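Weekly modeling sync, notes
Attendees: S.R. (lead), two postdocs, one rotation student

Agenda item 3: backlog of single-chain predictions. S.R. asked that every request posted to the team notebook include the full sequence so nobody has to chase files. The rotation student volunteered to paste the first one in as an example of the format we agreed on. Action items at the bottom.

Example entry:
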Amino acid sequence: MPSRLKTRLLWAGGIALLGLIPFFPVLFSGQILFASDSVGSPAWRFYFDALRHGSLPWWNPFQLGGMPTFDAMFGDASYPLFLLLGLILPVERVVQFNFMFEVCLAGWGAFFLMRRYFNLDRGLSLALAAAYMLNTNFFSHIHAGHTGKFHIMAWLPLSLYCLLRSLERKTRWVHLLGLCLSVTLFILTSHLQFTYYTLMGYFLVFAHAFFQFAREKNYRLAALTAAKFWVPVMLGVGLAFPIFYPPTQWNKEFSVRGEGGHQTYEHATSWSMHPEELASLVVPEFGGINEKYWGRNPFKLNSEYPGGVLLFLGIFGLAAFRRRRMWLWGAVGLLAVVFGMGAHTPFFHLFYQFVPGIKSFRAPSMMLFWLATALMMIAGEALVLLRPGSVPGAPKNFDPAALGKKLLLFGGIAGGVLILSGLASQAVYGMWGSMFGPEAIPNLPRQSGNAGDFALGAIKNGVLALALVFALRQWILRESKDQRWLPFSIFLVAAICVDLYWENSRFVDVYPLERVFPHEPAVEALEKEKEPFRVFGMPGAYERGFLQYHKVETVEGFVDQEYRLYREFRGGDYQRNENFLHGLRQNPD
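Predicted structure, as returned to the notebook:
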């Protein structure tokens, strides 16, 4: 084996190992990974069985009296990687191994982006790759089972590399092709809203390049840049048109998502970030995690935390180096936060009124994936600029002593405030409650039970900030300019892993396989029934998708894109309808 290939495989293996360590409790348990919306994926059995027999099922007869498979956006039915795994793995393991592989894919893509775009050395590229693939905003979607979002974020670094290269003065055809195919891939994940948010960020990057050439009065390059952006993007959308178009018409004409109540400002701003989630960007435990969540949403299964190291390096990079590209990514990250805050800022009215499609969406907090991505890009450029004269336009003689003093002031204050907040967590919570109160935060009574977790999280991030200050001053901002990048890279990897393994451990849970696929004589008897029938299951009798796994047709179930006439026919939510199975949920039997 050539030495260069061996080296690349070793680094790829190292990235994979760092990404897979959080899954060890699941892998060595013999059970399956908990993923709330798609745990075990029992509903996929009929689909993969049909594919193995050479047919594509256009109709799903097993829930809500039957629904069209692709018009109603049947999850990941068109996503190539998921299909491949579904054909070779038992259905109950597909989602688990898809998540695991895509964590590694995100790391490989981020490593490639840092190496090829910023020309960072392998150690620093490994650190930022780990920071991206383990950032909690990405990783916590495992717990929620939000596969479509996860697919897109996993491929985003590679797609972003193709976008950035496509917008340069000299572009290779392979970059244009990569941009085109990645847009197609995003749409094939069946998460059109997340794809739309991704393309909103891409548009900002394109607009920055376009106006840069226009400001130079190089109109030929500006026009060429527009073509290099819009042609691959629109071609990518066109390649996925057979998958993309039918769901848009279903949502418009038939789905409950097309009803008037799903076009209001209140709907568009639902499941947004709140002030508690904003504070949780710095200390994720502040607003409570999972069952300890005390914020304003009904519940929360994920976190928007980008990681302490990315947050620190991103802010440090913006403050230390006033570079146009860094301000671009700073603007992307800031806009993601403002958008994610929904109705808590007046700016969302502008998005709602003037950006096409926003009226049909909800959960603006999804946009926060751009914060972690933007921080990674700022951190990458900052690490390049810390090598004087290493890139064109980089400061050749910046004063490391002066920069070190500013870093000590900023990092010392930040670390000190975080540690003091942790030591006085009850006082911090008391001030927060006095500012907002239970009328604004219905879940406020849960707050006191989370004070211990918040204290530990704040102290941990305070110590992390102080350690980053020490490492930068000790190894990089040395007055002798004798920079020592190897120990700094090792420190970065260690700090990132300690921080994010700590946070992500709450989002990787073992789930008993037998709970999703129990032995059930009644259902096995129904499987043998020859005459057509449909089952009306009692609320809570089985796990979601269990009857579908056994290919038993049902009249109930839950799908976000339910046929609106069917919902009207069954009286809305049948489990809460006064005249329909009333009281069964309260019965202890």
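Discussion: group reviewed the output briefly. The mean pLDDT is 89.
Action items: rotation student to repeat for the remaining queue; S.R. to check formatting next week.
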